[in-house]
Amino acid sequence: SWMNKYETREHFAQKLTRIVSQPIPVSQKENLLKAFNFSEEELEKGVKENYLDFRPHLFLGKLYNADYQISQDPEDLKSALYYSEKSISLSPNNQQGYWYLGEVKLAQGKKDEAVALFQKALDLEPRYLQAHWYLAMAYKFSGQYQLAKEQILEAKKLGYDWDSNIYELRQAISIFEYFKDDAVLLPLYQKAVQLKPDDIQMWSALVAAYANLGQFDKAREVAEQVKKIKPEASAGIDEFVKSFPK
């Protein structure tokens, strides 16, 4: 049936967009772009077969935007805009359409429009906790760090555990780092190294946070941990530790 074909197309499109969220080696970009082109052609067939169904438009818009992140081809962004807007016109109460269109607006540099779209999605269903997180990220990417901070704290208050996922925790940390509050950052760094014990960047930030708070013995202790994980960084770490008061 068409639905089975659609589900296969959607699954492949979602898999591709997840890949783009990770660092992509240059050697793989050409093959990935070919996969995007193939998937786009398949989803466009779905649009023609069921032109009143918002779903193929929705995922095609998302796919073209992910394609643009690699290709930087303005035509891909133009297509992402068209299909995202079309999905909203077909299903104006679907949150995803506003999220995907908001991502397109961010790619276009239209930050205020993007924030308004993420706010619209939240207004449609405030009980969906991830909508609060998406709005926080829109604030972050638009440079509105105070609003981003308030929104992620609100999401946490409502029960959205962004600190149990290393990717989201790192996003939250990047917001709190803007305010340079080591007392707030310290437990976040501690949680980050629990979730990803080989994350040298978070371990190093933990050392610095302890030092900035005057907890030099703890900073030295954690510095030794970093040296075990990455011995080649020992010289730089030892030099940093030497700067601590006796």
- Integer average pLDDT: 87
Which quaternary structure do these chains form? single chain
If helices are DSSP runs of H or I spanning 4 or more residues, what is the number of helices? Answer: 13
Structural class designation? mainly alpha
Largest sheet: none
Order of helices and strands: HHHHHHHHHHHHH
The gross shape turns out to be: elongated
CA-atom Rg in angstroms: 22 Å
Strand content: under 5%
Report the helical percentage. Answer: over 70%
Care to count the β-strands? 0
Distance between the termini: 74 Å
SSE layout:
Layout: H1 2-20, H2 26-49, H3 54-71, H4 74-90, H5 95-107, H6 111-124, H7 129-141, H8 145-158, H9 166-177, H10 182-195, H11 200-212, H12 216-229, H13 234-242
Please give a structural write-up.
The protein is mainly alpha-helical and 246 residues long. Helices cover 79% and strands 0% of the residues. The protein contains 13 helices and no strands. The protein has helices at 2-20, 26-49, 54-71, 74-90, 95-107, 111-124, 129-141, 145-158, 166-177, 182-195, 200-212, 216-229, 234-242. α1 (2-20) packs antiparallel against α2, α3 packs antiparallel against α4 and α9 (166-177) packs antiparallel against α10 (182-195). The chain is elongated and about 70 Å long. 33% of the residues are buried. The model is unreliable at 1-7 and 9-13 (pLDDT under 50).
Write a brief structural summary.
With 246 residues, this protein is mostly helical. 79% of the residues lie in helices and 0% in strands. The chain contains 13 helices and no strands.
